[in-house]
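Module 6 notes. Inverse folding takes a fixed backbone as the condition and produces residue identities as the prediction. Think of it as a translation problem where the source language is geometry and the target language is the twenty amino acids. Below is one complete input and output pair. Work through it position by position during the lab.
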């Protein structure tokens, strides 16, 4: 009698080879400002955290700075979120832009560069202004 092979148990957090993830602390999740966001805004903020750590975003941000002739790179909390990257997460450019605008108004991110007039991606940065503001 042969030995039975043990089946590998699937890991619920394993995906198709991507290793990008974002840490979300309980202080953020328990804060009144974060809980005042709609469910869509909360989810999009977490998507922004993951997007900011991807290699595609890093390359895009680096190329953006190089094209502008900047020697100093953007801060580590800066990110870009082009429409092509939004589609990869299931957002169209209209919804993604609306969520970015709402998160900017509520102090979770800020727009570092507004490049709409140049038809280039905007540069955003995560902020902690939401800690100082009182939710409505």
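Target side of the pair, the amino acids:
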């Amino acid at each position: 009698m042969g030995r039975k092979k043990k089946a590998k148990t699937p890991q619920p957090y394993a995906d198709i080879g991507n290793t990008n993830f974002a840490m979300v602390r309980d202080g953020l999740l328990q804060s009144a400002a974060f809980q005042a966001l709609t469910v869509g805004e909360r989810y999009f903020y977490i998507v922004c955290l993951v997007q900011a750590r991807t290699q595609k975003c890093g390359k895009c941000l680096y190329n953006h700075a190089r094209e502008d002739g900047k020697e100093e790179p953007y801060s580590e909390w800066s990110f870009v979120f082009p429409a092509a990257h939004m589609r990869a997460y299931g957002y169209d450019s209209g919804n993604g832009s609306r969520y970015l605008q709402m998160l900017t108004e509520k102090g979770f991110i800020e727009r570092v560069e507004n490049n709409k007039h140049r038809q280039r991606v905007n540069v955003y940065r995560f902020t902690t202004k939401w800690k100082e503001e009182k939710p409505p």
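Reference fact for the lab report: The chain has seven helices and three strands.
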